Amino acid sequence: MKATPQHQSQLIDLQLIDTALMSARHRLATLPEREQITAIHARLATSAAELAIVEAELADAAIDLRRSELEVEQVSDRIAKDEARLASGSASPKELEQLQHEVGTLSKRKSELEDLELEIMMRYDAVKTRVDELRNDEIGLQKLELELNIRLENGITEIEKEIAEKELERRSLVPQIDPTLVELYEKIRASNAGVGAALLLGNSCGGCHLAINAIEIERIKTLDVEEVLRCEECRRILVRI
Ligand SMILES: [Zn+2]
Q1: Rounded to 5 degrees, what angle do the CA atoms 212, 192, 28 make?
Q2: Which has the closest alpha carbon to 185: 176, 196, 199, 198?
Q3: What does R_g of the chain's alpha carbons equal in angstroms?
Q4: If you measure from the C-alpha of residue 200 to the centroid of ligand 1, how many angstroms do you get, rounded to a whole number?
Q5: In what order do the strands lie in the sheet with 197-201?
Q6: N or C end of the chain: smaller count of CB under 10 Å?
Q7: How far apart are the CA of 239 and the centre of ligand 1, in A?
């Protein structure tokens, strides 16, 4: 097959555009923010699940605390009543004895209930701390997600602009090259990792980077400049500079 050196050189330009397009599309598909956002979603889901559990624990602890407070209040009221009766001086000696005994028992009970109340209060505070931590984490993660989304959007816009520019260049370049040469290039490119044409650099192929043997190099030198060369190793179109 034959093609003018001009067309062969333009084929290298086309290859540069296609390589840039491949790179841009790869970058578009693998923007790091995508993975980071997915990781944040997973962390948010874990955090939300734990938050639901600890919030339920907090609600339970609040009920326990209120109940405990009421119990302490009730015992205190009874003690106050008994003490008022004692102070009134109108009780009989037998009644006095009973009242004193009851105040003693109630005071002991009150002290036990207060210890219990303190325990519940400590449990409530610990759960509340965890709830606050998780809520703060959630806010932080949501903020980070927002920032990453903005970065992702900017990244996409930038790469899509680059792709549009390269596609425009491609559309204006392709009609300038011999269609048969372009067709061959496309065929090779499809089965060679997107590279259909490469420069002959010294004595090696710019596509597969393998050295071309001396006999082949000598043969190439005798060929017409319009002769379209193919690398014997990778079969790509080799363009002489
Ligand atoms: Zn090669």
Answers
A1: 130
A2: 196
A3: 42
A4: 9
A5: 204-205, 197-201, 237-239, 229-230
A6: C
A7: 11
Amino acid 89: pLDDT: 85
34-172: which CATH topology?
Helix Hairpins (1.10.287)
Per-domain boundaries in the chain: 5-25+178-239, 34-172
Q: β-strands 204-205, 197-201: how paired?
A: antiparallel
pLDDT at 91 exceeding the cut of 90:
no
Instruction: Say how many Å lie between the CA of residue 210 and the centre of ligand 1.
Output: 6
**What is the number of other CB atoms lying within 10 angstroms of the CB of residue 108?**
11
**The model scores a pTM over 0.85:** no
> Residue 124 — very low, low, confident or very high, per pLDDT cuts 50/70/90?
very high
DSSP secondary structure code for residue 178 in this structure: -
Cβ neighbour number for residue 62 with a 10 Å cutoff? 14
Are 58 and 85 in contact, with CB atoms under 8 Å apart?
A: no
Ligand 1 mean position, distance from CA 8 (Å): 16
Model confidence band, residue 65 (pLDDT cutoffs 50, 70, 90): very high
Q: Which residue has the tokens 């997600």?
A: 145
| Contact call for residues 207 and 192 (beta carbons, < 8 A) | yes
Residue bearing tokens 């998780």 = 134
Question: Structure tokens of 39?
Answer: 């990781």
First-last CA distance in the chain? 18
